[in-house]
């Protein structure tokens, strides 16, 4: 079925081809792609869920005024689970390796920010500056 459309300057002909049956190999590829899509989706979802749990725990710990240094241990356990989920997703190529590295780095930076906020960790640059001040005095 061909329809002629008349735009302002040119004539355009639009033809719709009748749908053809997929070849057997194409149908098999479609089935395989769907299987992979579902599998990859579950891997990515698991990694995202683990990351959310870590970020929520870190936010709660940061807001807590009287937090103790040993409370970070539970967060570290969650971070380990998140790292594992991310690494598994990278291994089966559901995530690109750089994406996995970036997500792990974000978790580590967020954890370090909470430790600095509570004074459980002193960055190397700040520690060096304190030593220089102490030596100068």
From TrEMBL:
HAMAP family on file: Ribosomal_bS20
Which named protein is this?
A: Small ribosomal subunit protein bS20c
Q: Which GO-annotated molecular functions does the record name?
A: small ribosomal subunit rRNA binding; structural constituent of ribosome
- This protein's record includes keyword Ribosomal protein: yes
Give the superkingdom in one word.
Answer: Eukaryota
Instruction: Give the span(s) annotated as Disordered.
Output: 20-46
Look up and give the organism this protein is from.
Brassica oleracea var. oleracea
Q: What GO cellular-component annotations does this UniProt entry give? A: chloroplast; small ribosomal subunit
Q: What is the lineage of its organism?
A: Eukaryota, Viridiplantae, Streptophyta, Embryophyta, Tracheophyta
SUPFAM superfamilies linked: Ribosomal protein S20
**Hey, which family's this protein in?**
Belongs to the bacterial ribosomal protein bS20 family.
Where is this protein found?
Plastid, Chloroplast
Which InterPro entries does the record associate with it?
Answer: Ribosomal_bS20, Ribosomal_bS20_sf
GO BP annotations, alphabetical order: translation
**Where is it mainly found?**
plastid
């Amino acid at each position: 079925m061909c329809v002629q459309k008349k735009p302002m300057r040119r004539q355009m002909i639009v033809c719709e081809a009748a749908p053809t049956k997929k070849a057997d190999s194409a149908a098999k590829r479609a089935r395989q792609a769907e299987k992979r899509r579902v599998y990859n989706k579950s891997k990515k979802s698991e990694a995202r869920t683990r990351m959310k749990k870590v970020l929520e725990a870190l936010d709660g710990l940061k807001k807590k005024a009287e937090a103790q240094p040993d409370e970070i241990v539970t967060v570290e356990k969650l971070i380990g689970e998140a790292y594992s989920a991310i690494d598994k997703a990278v291994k089966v190529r559901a995530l690109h390796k750089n994406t996995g590295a970036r997500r792990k780095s974000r978790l580590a930076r967020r954890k370090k920010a909470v430790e600095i906020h509570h004074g459980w960790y002193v960055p190397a640059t700040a520690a060096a500056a304190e030593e220089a001040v102490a030596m100068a005095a």
